[in-house]
Amino acid sequence: MIRLFLGNRVGVVLLLPLILALYTIGYFFGYNPVFGPSIQVEQLIPYLAEMPAAHLMAHFIMLLLNAVALNWVFNSREFLEKNTFIISLNYLIFESFFHSWGEPSWLLVAQFFSIIGLGLFLGIKPQQIAKKTAFNASFVFGLSVYFETSFVLLLPLLIFMFISIRGLFWRELVLIVIGFLMPLGGLLSFYFFSNGLVGLHFIPKMKFYWPNWQDYTIFLWFGLILIFSLFGLRARLLKASLKLKKQTQVLTLYLFYVLLIGTTGFFFTGQFGFLSLVVIPFSFYFSYALLSSSLGISSHLFYYLLFVFSLLKFVLFTF
What we know:
Elements: H1 2-6, H2 16-29, H3 52-76, H4 86-95, H5 107-121, H6 131-144, H7 154-166, H8 170-193, H9 213-237, H10 242-269, H11 279-291, H12 297-316
Helix pairs in contact: 2-12, 3-4, 3-5, 4-11, 5-6, 6-7, 6-8, 7-8, 7-10, 9-11
């Protein structure tokens, strides 16, 4: 399976629905595990909460769409010399720990806008004026706040990433802020004109969450994914171009910012929406681990173990 997706045959994308079907089978015949204390719901359309079948289909479609979109970002921004489709498989496996089938949630929609925004952001070139691209990327990132309000914390990250790419260009930085805040202004207007009927919580209630053994198990897997990803990235950077080094510098900044803010938010508010963004850099960097000759078969063996666990967790977490 790994070898198929590591190749450049676009036809392997047709296998993604079959892999997702395995997770839906686990959902129907086992316990649907929830990461964190409860499922997050920002109900811009509250009545959809009464339609579990619709949410199941929406999750299926959005997971496929996000996987393909993330793979497009990786290939179009030339993180590898050839096209590969392992990124889409990585996303599906890693994301399986963050969503719950059939439950109302806009998290995957928010992730979609973050993926597209990141793709636009990585298109900024250090030596070229990037006013239009910077504005468009930040605007798309801002749209994600409609569906997951914790993503408002992405604004400082966008500024840091831009400075890492281009340096201090104040006009472009101002455009980033304006582009991000424009959708936010629309969201606040929507909340205002609906007389507060839509529940929006930009500042969540601070209440320390004590993780259970299931949460710690998932964090353990995340830690192992991070270790393999960093080793794979290190091996890749030894023979990387200057362009790739700059891109990975930006993505590494993204990774550790999301880990720091997301983990803090998880333990102090019980919210995992922001932390879920970690699947994006994980999906990129773990592909390097699978291609690394120094890691050898160990990364492949770990990957298969992770995949099997992600399927069996529907049963294992019942004990």
